[in-house]
Structure formats: C-alpha cells, structure tokens
Design a protein that fits this description.
By secondary structure, chain A is an alpha+beta fold. Chain A has helices at residues 12-19, 40-43, 124-131, 135-141, 163-168, 181-204, 211-231, 233-242, 244-254, and strands at residues 28-30, 33-34, 37-38, 45-46, 50-59, 65-75, 79-88, 96-103, 108-115, 148-149, 152-153, 174-178. Chain A has a single domain (6-254), classed as oxygen-dependent coproporphyrinogen oxidase. Chain A is globular and about 50 Å long. By secondary structure, chain B is α+β, with helices and mostly antiparallel strands. In chain B, helix 6 (194-219) runs antiparallel to helix 8 (229-239). Classes of the chains: A alpha+beta, B alpha+beta.
C-alpha cells in the first residue's frame, strides 16, 4: 500500500477545471445568496485546523441551475475533503450530481453518482433517459482495484452505515475506497466522465410540464437534500471546526 | 464418473413457503394455468406452481432445466391488495462451475421518502445484507432494470463452485430472506391510508412490468426455446 503525502494529493478542482476543463463553454456566474444565506464566508476560509473554499455558481442566462458547487477542505495538512455538486432548479427533473472525493495518505474515498429525484422503479423511463447513459462508464470503473477486491465488487457499499444515503443512490454509483496513486487518478477520470454526462443532460433538459410529477419530484428531492444536509457525518466535522451557522451554509452548498 | 447433483432450490423454497397455508392456483386472470405446471421442449423442461394465501396475492416457484447444463429457479411472492408487504424475489442460475444468485425484498413504496417503511421492512434486513457481503463473487446485480427496482439490501453474487458443499451454502441467502419475509407476513395488517394504497398499487404494477420485460428477454433465448411454447408463453403470467 502506497501512502501519499499531502503535497502529492490530487489537486481536485485544478484537475477538473484546468486539466479537464469540465466547464468549458459554460458561463458560470457566482451565486451570492443561497437559501437566504450570504455565500461569501464559503468562498475562502481559514482556521487553525482547516482551510479551503466552496464556490457556488449558477449558469448565466439560464433557469436550469439551482447551484453548481465545487470545493475543497484541507484538514491539518493531512487530508483533503473535496466536493462537486450540480443541482438543477425545481423546474427540471435532472438527477443530483453528487461527488465526495476524500483523500488521505492511505486511501481515497469516493462516491460519485447521479442521484434520481423520482422513484425509478415507478418511472423506468427516467432511468433510461438520465441514468442509463452511465452504464458503460460504471461497468468500466467499478472494476478498479479497491472497488473490486478478491473477486467481490463492493460498489453500492461505501454508504453501508447510512441506509438513507444508499436509498438515494442510482443503480450506477461509483463508491468505495482505493489506495494506489494511479487508481486514485483513474477515480478522478470517473468523476470527470460522470460530470460530463450530467452537463450534457443539462444542455438537453426541458422543463417539467406535469404538475403532479413535479410535486412527486420535489418531495423526493427535498427528502434527499434533508438527509444529506442533516445527517451526513461530514456535517458534524464541519460544525466542530466552523460552528453551526457556517455548517448550515457549507452543507447546503455541498449538497 | 460422478453424476452431478443440482441444489434443491425449489424444494427448500417450498418447505418455507408451506408455512403460509398455501392454496394452489389453477387459474389466473381467467386463464387455465394448471396445464402449464409441467412442460418439456426440445432443449429443456420446466415446472411452475402458483399459490395464494392469506395476505398474499400470489406466491410462485419455478424450476427450469436448460438441458443438463443449467438449473434455473425463480420464486416470487406478491402481497394481496391492501397490504404493504414487500415483494419477495429470488433468482437462481446454477451451472456446473458457478451459481448466480439474486434475492431481495423489493419495496412497494419509495423507500427513500417513506422512512417508517424503510426502517420496518428494509433496514431490518441490514444484518443479512452485511453477512452475505462476504459471499465469494458478491457483486451488483447485472441487469440494470432489475437492479433499479431492487432495495438497498438485495444480495447478488456469481459464486464460483469450488466444492460441492457450496451449492447448499448458496441457498442460504434465499431461505434467510424468505424467513424474514414470513415474519413480516405474520404481523402484516391492512393499510388504511387510501393514498398509500394507491402508491403501493402503482409501484407493484411498475415492478411487475419491469420483471415481465426481464423474463421476456430471458425466455427469448435458448431457455424459452428449450421449454416449449406452452410454459414459455405463460411463465411470466404465472410468476407475476
């Protein structure tokens, strides 16, 4: 097992924005207020324990986006907790793109997924439209060493202690833990591939026309957001470091 | 030469199902299904039986032999209208060198939104889900549509058979999940909320449609041809 020193850990946002240019062609505009909260404290922060940023945006001239957030929390020069979230506005039924990319010396923990905002057992057409585009990517990356180990494939298992979180996942999550530096980079490639699928779906998305379907969609979407904002154990760590007020802002931007 | 012994999948499932005081179904939605109980075609044979019981719309068990190369087993249990019990779904695909399994209690509501349902029927299976995560060959269910209707506690694996005792061991997830189902069945009471009943009805219909497509795809291949037209055409109707 290779241990990766802090300075050699993946520069998550630089890789996404500069190397892979995932937002090229999109005009991002800073989101200054979110759910009535001033987002400024999130754009750059520093305490004796942690430093970093969560930067939320919307898309200039578009009503499709609730928020696009990327960010990194660097903890005591030991670990990086990185996040990427794309959430559509409530007029669209796009899945929630969610990525946790947490790197420490011994391992990288990853969850990247397009979380459905309707019950896909009831709406198989939703799965076909928004989630099935991931099927080949999922089958490629789920075999990475660590995600598959000793002949067992462990995806859909990283959230084992949190049933509410597992219930939010699509049939195509990339989640688990990897160790080797080259595998960590391959995981980053998976994040890029998933992000590109979502951004492509977003470009083609049409507003919801059926009010009953929209109510159903919003019920599930709010339930997912409530769970992750209130119960994600990462939120407790953020609360200890930054206090309750900033925790509320940060977790709302991350999820 | 040692003759190969198939695992007693159907026998074990039936043994547990008998606790439900089953009543044999010979007709389903106006069609005679008794005639399809046993079938043989050019490349295989099949047996399927359907039952009803208190609180249960239908419980069915099927065994299909594709020549002497593969034994397929399916067991389904659908709750009667008015009950929120999950759907029991078990699939068994046994070859000389491996057994592919899937077993689940498929939720009949949105188990993300309906937290009490998830805690009652799904999270209580957590210890079994954990236990079987150590199965050799444990992996997500391969069929995307089927995986999409499964709960968060389904168990799936393609278990390599390295010694004969593993065939019996591979039956354990099916029987253990079934035992939990039978516990839930005992304590099930009718749902009073008309909105919840509507949700359950819609979800069960959607799950049946997904499974019907899945069986249709599977039976379009050599398995269906081997069975002969009689059973192949009726199998989905009997199981779902």
């Amino acid at each position: 097992m290779a241990r990766v020193p802090f300075n050699d850990m993946i520069r998550f946002t630089d890789e996404l924005l500069v190397t892979h240019k995932i937002f090229d062609g999109l005009e991002l505009e800073p989101l200054n207020t979110y759910l009535g909260m001033d987002t400024q404290p999130a754009w750059e922060y520093k305490t004796p324990l942690a430093s970093g940023f969560y930067k939320p945006y919307v898309l200039k001239g578009s009503d499709k986006i609730d928020k696009i957030t990327y960010g990194e929390l660097h903890y005591m020069g030991r670990a990086k907790y990185c996040a990427l979230n794309f959430t559509a506005s409530d007029d669209y039924d796009l899945p929630i793109f969610s990525c946790e990319f947490d790197e420490s010396a011994p391992r990288l923990s990853i969850t990247v997924d397009l979380m459905p905002v309707v019950d896909i057992a009831v709406h198989p057409e939703y799965r076909e439209k928004y989630l099935d585009p991931l099927k080949d990517i999922w089958r490629t990356y789920r075999t990475l060493p660590g995600l598959t180990k000793d002949g067992r494939c462990h995806v859909q298992r990283r959230y084992a202690p949190w049933p509410w979180a597992r219930a939010a996942l699509s049939p195509y999550p990339i989640d688990g833990r990897v160790e080797e530096p080259e595998t960590r980079l391959a995981v980053l490639d998976a994040v890029v591939a998933y992000a590109r699928v979502w951004l492509d779906l977003m470009k083609k998305a049409e507003p919801i026309r059926d009010p009953a379907y929209k109510r159903e969609m919003i019920t599930r979407k709010r339930a997912v957001q409530k769970y992750f904002r209130e119960l994600d154990p990462g939120g407790e760590v953020i609360k200890k470091i930054f206090g309750a007020e900033k925790q509320k802002l940060f977790v709302s931007l991350i999820f | 030469m040692v003759e190969k012994t198939w695992a007693p999948y159907c026998e074990k499932m039936k043994e547990h199902l008998d606790q439900l005081s089953l009543v044999r179904l010979t007709q389903w939605q106006g069609a005679d299904i008794a005639g399809a109980e046993h079938s043989a075609g050019p490349g295989g044979s099949g047996t399927v039986q359907a039952f009803t019981a208190d609180k249960i719309e239908k419980a069915a068990i099927a065994r299909i032999m594709a020549g002497d190369a593969v034994q397929y087993g399916i067991c389904t249990i659908f709750p009667a209208e008015g009950f929120d019990l999950p759907i029991y779904f078990s699939r068994w695909e046994e070859r000389a060198d491996s057994i592919s399994i899937l077993v689940d209690l498929v939720p009949t509501v949105d188990s993300l939104v309906d937290e009490p349902y998830r805690k009652k029927y799904i999270e209580t299976l957590g210890p079994l889900w954990d236990k079987y995560s150590n199965l050799p060959g444990m992996a997500p269910e391969e069929n995307d549509a089927v995986r999409a209707v499964c709960s968060i506690v389904y168990t799936a694996a393609v278990i390599p058979i390295e010694r004969e005792g593993m065939r019996l061991a591979a039956l354990a997830p099916h029987t253990e999940y079934l035992k939990k189902y039978l516990e839930f069945h005992q304590s099930a009471v009718p749902v009073e909320d008309p909105q919840k009943l509507q949700e359950i009805k819609r979800k069960i219909a959607a799950v049946k449609a997904t499974l019907r497509d899945y069986f249709k795809g599977a039976l379009a291949g050599p398995v269906g041809q081997g069975l002969g037209a009689g059973l192949s055409e009726q199998l989905s109707d009997i199981l779902l």
